Amino acid sequence: MRADMPLDLKSLITARLGENYKLHERHLNPTLVRVQRIIGFDQVYARAEGAYLYDLDERDYLDFLSGYSVFNIGRNHPAVQRAITDVLEMDLPNMVQMDCSLLSGLLAEALLKKLPPHLDAVFFCNSGAEANEGAIKFARAATGRSGLLSLHGSFHGLSHGALSVMGDEHFREGFGPLLENCARVKMGDLEELEMHLKRKDVAAFIIEPVQGKGVNFPTGDYYREAQRLCREHGTLLVCDEVQTGLGRTGRWWGFEHWDLEPDIITVAKSLSGGYVPCAAIVARRAIYQKTFSRLDRCVVHSSTFGRNNLAMACGLATLQVIDDEDLVERARVNGAKLVARIEELKKKHSLIKQVRGMGMMVAIEFHEPSELSARMGWKLLHRVERELFAQMLVTSLFQQHRILTQLAGHSMDVIKILPPLIIGDREIDRFVTALDAVLADCRSFPGPIWNLGANFIKHSLSRSTVELASAGS
Ligand code: PLP
C-alpha cells in the first residue's frame, strides 16, 4: 500500500529553510554551531551547482572546499542525478544480500579499469574510515601480523582502527585504548621505517600519497624506497586514496606520481558523486582471498549498505563523468595554473612562504611578513595560537569574497584549497584576486581583518577552529 499523502519535501524545505542552525543547536552538535557562528560560516545555502553554492538571495559562493573533496565533478551533476532517477524509476531489487547485484559488479569492473592490473579485487563499503578499517583487517588477515605503521601528520578517518593509525594526537585524545602495535614514522626517514619493518610483525604501512593535512608529500624516492623495504620485510603497502584518488592530484591516483605498486588502496569521497556514500577497498586478489578464505568466512567482512544500488549507480556515473569531461587532465593543467598564479602573488606579499600542490590539492603556507605593521598583527595572533592567522584569512575570504576554503590542519599557518576539478580561468581569477585583496588588507594593522583575529581570541576559539577545519582533513 502506498501512502495517500506522501511527504511534501519541497513545501517542508521552503517553509523551514533558515531554521538550520537553530535545529542543529537543539538536536545535533551545538559546539559545531557555536564555532561556525564565531568564524562567520553560519550561512544558509538554498541551492548548489557545479563549483558554486547559492544563498537565498541567489548570491554565489565559490566552493574551493568541495565538501572535503567529495565534489570532484562539481555539485549536483546532471549525469549523477540521471543515474539516481533511473535506479528509482526501474524499481530495482536492492540489497537482497543473498544474491549478487549487477550494479556492484559493473562498478567493480569500471573501477578496476582505472587501476593497474595487479589490483584486481574490490570490496564496497560506505566511507573512507570504513574502507581503511577494512584495509587494516585485510592486511592483518593476509600477513598474520598485527603491526601497523603510518606517517606523522596523516589522516585516515575517525573510527577506532583508522584513529589508531592517525598521525594527529588531537583526534585520539579521550578515545583510547586504541589498537595495539601501531607506530608512526617520519616522512622521509627510511632508517626509522626499516627499524620498525625489521621486527617482521608489521602487517601494513599506510600512507596518503599526498597528505590531506598541510598538503605534504616527500621529495625524491622516499616512497619508492619505502615500498622496496616493505616488500623486503613482508609488509603490505596500503595507499589511502580517499582524498587523492579520482583525479584530485592531476592523475587518476596519487600513487601514480611515484610509480608505486600498492598492495591495497582505499577509495571514497568523490566516488559517490556527492550524493550517496560510496567507498571501496581494492586489493590484490591473493590478499583479498586471505580474508574470505573458507566458505564459512564468505561474509566475515561485510557491510549491509556497502553495495547498495544508489551508491553503485552514482559511482558508475561519476567515473564516466571524470572520463567524459577529461577531469583528470583538467585538474593537472588548471591546478598548475592556479599554483603559478598564487606563486606570482609571492612577489607582492611577503606573507606567503610557500605554495605547494598537486593538481587541485593546494596549500598556501604563510610566515612572518617583512612589513612592520603586518608583523605586529602576526606576532600578536601567534602569541595566542598559531592557526588563528590562517583562520583569519579563511574567514576573510569567505566574508569579503564569498569563497569557501579551509585551514590545512592543527598548528600551521597554512590554508588549503580543494576546488572541484571542473573549475577554469574564471574561478582561478576570482580566487587569486580575492587572496591578493585579503593579503593587502593584512598590511593595515590595526584594521578590519585583524579585528577578526581579535574576535577569535575573545571567543577562545583556538582549539575549536582547528577541530572544524581538520574534521575531514
Ligand atoms: N582518509 C583520508 C585521506 C581522508 O581525507 C578522510 C577524510 O577526510 C578519510 C580517510 C576518512 O573518510 P570518511 O570521512 O569518509 O570516513
Q: Which regions contain 5 or more consecutive residues with pLDDT less than 50?
A: 466-470
Q: Major sheet, described briefly?
A: 7 strands, mixed
Radius of gyration from CA coordinates: 23 Å
Mean pLDDT figure:
95
Q: Strand tally, please?
A: 15
Task: Tell me the strand percentage band.
Answer: 5-15%
Main CATH class of the largest domain: Alpha Beta
CATH homologous superfamily grouping of the largest domain = Type I PLP-dependent aspartate aminotransferase-like (Major domain)
Tell me the helix content. Answer: 40-55%
Oligomer designation:
single chain
Distance between the termini: 45 Å
Shape: globular
Task: Please indicate the count of domains.
Answer: 2
Briefly note the CATH topology name of the largest domain.
Aspartate Aminotransferase, domain 2
Small molecules bound: pyridoxal-5'-phosphate
